[in-house]
Amino acid sequence: MQIGFENHTGADLTFTVCGDVVGDNVRELIVRWNEYKLLRAGKILFVDVSGVDTIDLLSEAAICSLAADGAHFLANGPTTGTIIDLVCKANVEAFRTGRRDFRSIVICR
After folding, report:
1. I need a surface site. Which of 35, 50, 84, 96 has the fewest CB within 10 A?
2. CATH fit for domain 2-108, picks 3.40.190.10, 3.30.750.24, 3.10.450.50, 3.10.450.350
3. pTM of this prediction?
């Protein structure tokens, strides 16, 4: 798995994840996400998962966690359908628990 980060001059930041997000890689994903979201300072934080080839149950939980943190996902690849399902699941859970400020989305490119 590879993780990159771009700080754009506009109102957004992009956190890019590529490869297989499985096993021990999931912990790294969460640690890096927590580091980068501190830099957000009111900006939209996009997570580009277009280069993700494989995800497992641990990474599915991590993606739901990122969605709960307000990530906006950019998707175009073999895991796009799964990412959409996970973000919808996070949306339903947020609604069920009364979170009306939930703003995670998936943008298919």
Report:
1. 96
2. 3.30.750.24
3. 0.88
